[in-house]
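Late entry, evening session. Most of the bench is empty. Finally got around to the prediction I had been postponing all week. Sequence below, unchanged from the version circulated by S.P.
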Amino acid sequence: MSENTSVHYRPEIDGLRAVAVIPVILFHAGFSLFSAGYVGVDVFFVVSGYLITSIILSEKKAGTFSISNFYERRARRILPALFLVIFASSICAWFLLLPGDFQEFSKSLIAAPAFVSNILFWNGTGYFGAGFTPLLHTWSLAVEEQFYLLYPVFFLLTWRIGIRWIVTILLVIFFLSLGLAEWASKYHPTAGFFLLPTRGWELAAGAFTAFYLIEGTPDRDALKSHILSVGGLMLIAIAVFGFGEKYTQWPSLYTLVPVSGTVLVILFASSRNAGGAMLSAKPFVVIGLISYSAYLWHHPLFEFSKIINIDNSSFILCSLLVILTFTLAYFSWKYVETPFRRKDKMSRREVFVFSLSASLIFLLFGIAGLQTDGFINRFSEADRHLAGTNARANSNYAEVRFKSLELTVFDRNDRRLKVVLIGDSYAKDLANAVCESELNNYLQLSTFFISSTQGNLYLEEDLSKFIAPENLAAYSRDERFDHKELRLRMKESDLIWLASNWKGWQARLVPKSLKNLENDFGEKVFIFGKKNFGEINLRKLLSMSASERQEYVNPISPRHVEINALMKGTLPDRKFIDISFLLCGNKSECKLFTGDGRLISWDGGHLTKEGSRFLERRILENFISTGFLTK
């Protein structure tokens, strides 16, 4: 609480900040012991609610509170170190990021200074399993800043009705927010994770501790304080070390464990008991003092290290990155955070001018990044098409046409063959291949999506034992082949095509599924094999000359070869279309570029627009040579 001299400084609160930041950093570093290290953010939220409420209450009672002073303190505390990290990240991004990644980074540059990162990531990557997002961690700063924007106004509007009514209103908000968080954890987990309405109860929990300590009569019984302060730390430890992937629908009622633990520590820890003594130890206090800078630095460091191919699975390298995080944190705390908090170094006007100017610069730089396709002109003209390969754009390309053809009613006056295409994103690639050029002259498509996580299989038995836990709800809910309109299209069709990213267990069951389909719909069912191009490393490809790319062959995943061989060996030749053979030949490696130098696959499994055309030509040649189609 050193940021405000009107509130008594408690070293154990800095120690609690250390307890919050260490698990978060080690979680992102990949240390499996800290598989629920994200819980540290919940500790931060409770601490923030406590500190801000303590400051506002103390100043309101003293008659010294003002909105301008409050926001000035927030700007001095938060913005200088944040802008330093964004600036450093922008330099790294300029030299290391490909245009597609730079476009996504540019969105963060706009969102982070405006404190709406939580809304950006809610609508984008999510948190668990997110791709390259060096500023992902700014979502929590956005939540806190949104809270800081509203909270002092709430006090100004309610102060006259008295503390008891203020606490009552906050209690109502607390339970509404907690209930919303529990509901969202089941039905809208990404929104629940990122947004203030489902995080507000954690900040309110911290606020209640401030009301109790300032307005109430705290229990100072030594034995009780000892037990409860240690008990609070144990609750936080249980959450950090005991919760894992199965609790990632977060926050929820489970989050009460670390939140309650943090409340107990704030209420009962002091230098006179074990919990407070541990947190007041110099190492914890020092880490707590630099915790904000450490939190800011850690995620960009880990993310950019992946770009330069640092092995993040290496214990030694990850440990070095953690050490570097705390080293940078110390220097930014000492030479950036601390000087900016001193009013004799910078006036209020200078703070606000600096804050607005820096925010505007990052905003304009982010807009420029979006408008220039990630500053694609950083690359030579010959390399721009390859460098500009964009995962999001290619994913949208695969999605749009398949969606537009979903359960389309066949035109009975159209003499083209009526084809029902059923499957996942690999079926979407096939739909694009059909529609891109000459195959479209022979076929009319009606599509239906069945996720490969559920199995594109026509079987009566329960497959739930094969389904991952996170996909069981969708498996129970989705109709798949029981969909009435799908069955009608299948009966009307001339051909039924199944295409998926087949898993091993699915490949073993496909022959039985095919037999069931033929029993119900006739001899018009065909199975398309999966495809694989190996790992696509754009940076490696960009380092090659155009001629080297044409000759380059990429190793295919051995697991793909194994599954494809299983399907080829157990399905009738006339029923199995070996996509992998059409694209790569009978090999364990594959070329990545078309004859005119265009990339075929953007991620090793899915096709670019040029790749779809490349596949279409191969399929058409195969269909004509086997008599499947006639010119």
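Two things to note before I forget:
The radius of gyration is 29 Å.
The first strand starts at residue 417 and ends at 423.
Will write this up properly tomorrow.
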